[in-house]
Amino acid sequence: MGGLVKYKVSGFDGQGHFKIVRSFGDFSSLRKAFLLRLPGLYIPNLPKKKFFSDENEKEPKFLEERCFHLE
Fold first, then answer.
1. Per-residue pLDDT for 62 more than 90?
2. pTM across the whole model
């Protein structure tokens, strides 16, 4: 998506099911908010943002592994 990798997120809440698209940075911001608002609660680390280079970041295997860890 414009050179930026986006992830499809689906779930449900009190208003029903939803589907949205988010970037890796959104997951990072969410984790930081959880850490600030929920001290003492274990919040797992996110997978590394990049492994070796920008080209590797868009490799299907890399993206599949990152999606697995984001779930």
1. no
2. 0.64
